[in-house]
Amino acid sequence: MKKRIGTMVVLGLAAMSLAACGSSAEETTAAATTAAETKAETEAEAEDTTAAETETEAAAEELSGAVSTDGSTSMESVIGILGESFMQLHPDVSFTYNPTGSGSGITAVQEGRCDIGLSSRALKDEETASGLKGETVALDGIAMIVNNENPIADLSLDQIAKIYTGEITNWSEVGGNDAEIVLIGREAGSGTRDGFESITGTEDACQYRQELTSTGDVITTVSQNPAAIGYASLSSVSDKVKAITVEGVEATEDTVRDGSYKIQRPFVLVTKDGEALSTQAQAFYDYAMSSEVADLIAQAGAVAIH
Q1: Regions in the chain scoring below 70 on pLDDT
Q2: Do 123 and 97 belong to one domain?
Q3: Does 22 fall in a domain?
Q4: What CA–CA distance (Å, rounded) separates 153 from 284?
Q5: Same domain, yes or no, for 292 and 222?
Q6: Closest residue by Cα to residue 286 from 53, 94, 116
Q7: For residue 159, what are the domain limits?
Q8: How much is the pLDDT for 62?
């Protein structure tokens, strides 16, 4: 009797051992299957990522050729940073910028001498009627600048207009030193001049002492003459001169965006309406108008539209 019971116990233990082994084998197989599936999914995802990166790199490598821009000197900082960034994305593309002034840039587009014109003013009716179109890429404040030695800190829009039309001729009339005001401005056709004169209502009435061909020249000239006043793109103003407030509002990115700073104008990309750009020029145009470059435009001192 004892022998039989012992045998049954042994048989029971053996059965339990076999069951345990079977369960362990199943679990091992399931774990191996899961690991294999996970590995396969990971490899597939890696392949997809690699394929996407390869496709992006291939697209960048495929884009080649030249993109030429011409026009506004006030847009130098903005167009420079956008062009440099674009070439980093597309190493086989060369980007050029010819700082000739807004009027010259618009003419260059009309005559087919550049891909994209740059204007720091909106296109006139006759320019759009001639087959051109313009799209605003950013906004820019036109800062009123005086010499660092000038005690004047603020002027009203009306005072600025009277100064530039010759109704106010001495700084003492607006609380400054007893000195004749020297009026510095831009040349005819300049987008900065057009913007300034249209906003202040002084078209064809300004009594300039000097009409200069670039924003940099205006800043340099004002910096060298204690009695001078001028206007320049906000993005170009340096500590060489003092930017005064207009009706108590400082020219900044925020005040330009919200419209509280009154002397501001658009930065415009100009092309021929209905005429396709080259592949690389269109790619740059789309890049410049995208929201992804807003930070770059801000770094250049302007306010992005998108």
Answers
A1: 1-61
A2: yes
A3: no
A4: 40
A5: no
A6: 116
A7: 140-264
A8: 83
